[in-house]
Write a sequence for this structure.
């Protein structure tokens, strides 16, 4: 992480004589150091805003005077457009230029943060959160595609490892930074603090990233119908999941489930007909490795997404932690991930192979959730019950994130790099979206004893971790000897 700090301490230098633009991108001035800094900062924004509010949820809930359902929508108003539109975010980059979409995403993101900071009502705040999700949907897949275009071989693995480590660390460090801001100045300033980072990343990207896009002959028309169907289908399903604990299976909730399933089914049928021209080419899932990686992503990120929302909420609401203390309590998670993820992305993946690391990582995450499931309702102690679980979770995710990302890109082939990164990003966001929607079972059903509800929900994390390890073990194919995993 020191290396990242050193790289980001100054702007990349203007084009020098040694930095020659690519022949097919006249006038471009690519700079690898600047490219990595810009993509790390840009993609980290999606993680930061996704998690920085976790420690501010109780304060937001009080300020807007909303119940547990409102808490879920604060999170999901961001995750819903991110999960729905990240599918098309990679395709937009392939079609119009990855640098162009990346810069647009940064601008949209900065504007959305300002709207959230000044929001005078809950609907306005949710509108800002939706806009943030749209901006993040442009940043996440294009940042990874930019790295894939700018680096190759072992250098690409190391770059992706750095990208993964910084993104994961930023997302988990955000609660600590956000906690300090929330305690000292209020939750609105947490959004204000993100704006300069967005602008800084935009300046670096304009100077350092070269423009790239898919071959014109290989670029299919944008699948707007698919995006609309998947977005509306997700909205209906998530609304039903959030409403279920409070309302029960009423006719309205059942209707929302039915509409959501119908829209998702229509989406899948249209994607199947479009083939390579689809937003989500279903033939990618005919590859056992890609299917296994997709399942692993859904299970693992679903488990982790629910935890990172619920844990700080429980610490603040049930144990009386301040926002800063709650953020600090999660600090071991990003520190361990930041130290290990970069080396896993290059050296360890090459030595042990993707499959071994993913099975091992999922197993370690499962052990972490198993420890959380033993948390006592009375006399819960941080060092005895929380830290050991976070320790195993961090090791497990460090072993998983970078190999998973690299394997997804390689399993899809160069032609579908942008699409594959979009699909994988969508799966991870949708997993977090579903997990957050289901938190109502804990927030409403265990209102009198949040710790007991948290411990019970950890068993779901154990099950999801086991399923992710099984997906890696049974579906991910080991490449022939001598070929990179």
């Amino acid at each position: 992480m020191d290396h990242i700090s050193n790289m980001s301490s100054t702007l990349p230098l203007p084009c020098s004589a040694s930095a020659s633009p690519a022949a097919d991108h006249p006038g471009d001035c690519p700079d690898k150091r600047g490219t990595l800094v810009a993509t790390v900062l840009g993609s980290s924004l999606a993680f930061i805003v996704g998690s920085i509010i976790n420690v501010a949820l109780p304060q937001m809930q009080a300020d807007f005077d909303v119940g547990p359902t409102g808490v879920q929508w604060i999170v999901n108003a961001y995750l819903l457009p991110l999960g729905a539109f990240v599918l098309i975010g990679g395709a937009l980059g392939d079609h119009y230029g990855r640098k162009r979409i990346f810069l647009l995403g940064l601008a949209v993101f900065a504007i959305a943060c300002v709207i959230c900071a000044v929001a005078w009502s809950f609907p306005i705040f949710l509108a800002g959160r939706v806009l943030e999700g749209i901006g993040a949907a442009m940043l996440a897949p294009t940042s990874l595609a930019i790295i894939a275009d700018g680096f190759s071989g072992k250098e690409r693995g190391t770059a992706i490892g750095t990208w993964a480590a910084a993104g994961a660390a930023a997302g988990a460090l955000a609660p600590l930074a956000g906690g300090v801001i929330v305690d000292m100045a209020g939750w609105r300033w947490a959004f204000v603090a993100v704006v300069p980072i967005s602008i800084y990343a935009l300046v670096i990207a304009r100077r350092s990233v070269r423009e790239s896009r898919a071959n014109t002959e290989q670029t299919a028309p944008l699948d707007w119908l698919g995006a609309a169907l998947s977005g509306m289908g997700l909205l209906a399903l998530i609304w039903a999941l959030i409403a279920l604990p409070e309302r029960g299976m009423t006719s309205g909730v059942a209707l929302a489930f039915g509409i959501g399933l119908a829209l998702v089914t229509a989406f899948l049928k249209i994607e199947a007909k479009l083939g390579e021209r689809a937003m989500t080419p279903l033939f990618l899932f005919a590859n056992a490795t890609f299917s296994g990686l997709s399942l692993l992503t859904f299970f693992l990120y679903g488990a982790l997404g629910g935890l990172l929302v619920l844990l700080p909420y429980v610490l603040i609401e049930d144990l009386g932690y301040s926002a800063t203390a709650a953020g600090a309590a999660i600090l071991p998670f990003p520190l361990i991930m930041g130290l290990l993820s970069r080396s896993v992305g290059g050296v360890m993946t090459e030595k042990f192979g993707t499959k071994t690391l993913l099975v091992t990582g999922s197993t370690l995450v499962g052990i972490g959730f198993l420890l959380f499931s033993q948390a006592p309702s009375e006399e819960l102690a941080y060092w005895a019950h929380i830290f050991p679980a976070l320790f195993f979770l961090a090791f497990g995710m460090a072993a998983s994130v970078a190999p998973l990302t690299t394997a997804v890109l390689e399993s899809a082939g160069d032609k579908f790099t942008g699409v594959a990164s979009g699909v994988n990003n969508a799966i991870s966001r949708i997993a977090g979206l579903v997990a957050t929607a289901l938190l109502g079972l804990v927030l409403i059903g265990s209102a009198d004893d949040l710790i007991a509800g948290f411990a019970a929900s950890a068993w779901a994390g154990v099950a999801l971790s086991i399923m992710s390890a099984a997906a890696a073990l049974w579906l991910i194919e080991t490449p022939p000897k001598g070929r990179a995993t």
Observations:
- Residues 332 and 387 are 8 Å apart (CA to CA).
